[in-house]
């Protein structure tokens, strides 16, 4: 009985040791050659201009992979290329095993079809350590991440701290419009830095006068990103300049202090250079106390808000 159970579990156990293969198919063709006949172009090699892109393939660590030396992961990618009608595998990224990372070789590449195989270009020498962000002649960036990102987001925010208003006011300045503008740079490791500006506006009415409330926040960001297929996940943290402003009928008053933010977001890549995404975040700011207000022993002056935003990202 034990032998029978072991026999039934063996395919599952063996399957869990294999790396994970991820594909994105743009054009589907019937298989035309066997995997052994798929030609390999290394990272940095020039691919003929006549190459037709079928899709992309990634071979990544499945979490408990053991059959994942360089030859084995290339063989898996070639098999997927042949299955989808390609005859060329052009590597765009090769991550070698590292002490703090995966123990597997991990690769990404383009599955291509070249009809004229007589005059294939030899290309330059393969360089598996080529810098991320270089491009081959298919125009596909050789990285899980584009080096730089500009983004624009618009959404809604809720002030969760106490907000004192004089009696006789109407309106709710604790809910309002939120927006973000920013730039990120992310390295091959998925860690990077950026700069974000976040704004907020709302209003209330006091003595028949409309009072506009505005919040501004500017801060450098520590950025972390992960990508699987067409999806990306990001986490950010920053400390910077925070400002509160009220204005009505040509007059205004403002307070400034130190702020901080936490953000978690997701993105779907429409192409190598454009994506759409959304994020959920928290921004808090400490402000100086006002002489005209009374504070308890445990109270501090500040404004804290939750925001939900969505927008577009441009990668290059």
TrEMBL record:
Protein name from the UniProt record: Outer membrane protein beta-barrel domain-containing protein
Transferase is among the record's keywords: no
Annotated InterPro entries: Beta-barrel_OMP (IPR027385), OMP/PagP_B-barrel (IPR011250)
Biological source species: Parabacteroides johnsonii DSM 18315
Pfam families in the cross-refs: OMP_b-brl
Signal sequence bounds: 1-23
Keyword Signal (UniProt): yes
Keywords per UniProt: Signal
Residue ranges of domain Outer membrane protein beta-barrel in the record: 147-284
């Amino acid at each position: 009985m034990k032998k029978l159970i072991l026999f039934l579990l063996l395919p599952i156990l063996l399957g869990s040791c294999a790396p994970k293969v991820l594909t994105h198919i743009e054009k589907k063709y019937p298989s035309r050659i066997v995997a052994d006949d798929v030609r390999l172009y290394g990272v940095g090699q020039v691919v003929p201009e006549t190459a037709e892109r079928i899709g992309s393939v990634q071979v990544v660590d499945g979490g408990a992979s053991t059959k994942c030396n360089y030859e084995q992961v290339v063989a898996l990618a070639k098999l997927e290329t042949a299955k989808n009608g390609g005859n060329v595998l052009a590597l765009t990224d090769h991550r070698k095993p590292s002490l703090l990372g995966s123990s597997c070789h991990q690769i990404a590449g383009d599955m291509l079809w070249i009809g004229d195989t007589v005059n294939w270009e030899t290309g330059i020498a393969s360089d598996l350590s080529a810098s991320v962000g270089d491009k081959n002649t298919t125009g596909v960036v050789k990285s899980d991440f584009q080096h730089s990102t500009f983004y624009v987001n618009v959404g809604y925010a809720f002030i969760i701290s106490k907000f004192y208003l004089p009696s006789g006011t109407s309106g709710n300045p604790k809910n309002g419009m939120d927006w973000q503008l920013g730039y990120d740079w992310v390295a091959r490791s998925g860690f990077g830095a950026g700069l974000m500006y976040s704004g907020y506006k709302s209003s209330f009415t006091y003595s028949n006068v409309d009072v506009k409330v505005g919040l501004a926040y500017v801060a450098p960001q520590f950025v972390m990103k992960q990508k699987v297929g067409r999806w990306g996940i990001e986490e950010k943290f920053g400390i910077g300049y925070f400002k509160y402003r009220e204005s009505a009928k040509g007059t205004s008053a403002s307070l400034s202090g130190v702020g901080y933010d936490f953000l978690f977001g997701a993105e779907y890549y429409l192409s190598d250079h454009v994506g759409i995404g959304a994020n959920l975040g928290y921004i808090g700011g400490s402000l100086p106390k006002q002489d005209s207000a009374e504070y308890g022993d445990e109270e501090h002056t500040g404004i804290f808000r939750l925001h939900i935003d969505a927008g577009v990202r441009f990668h290059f």
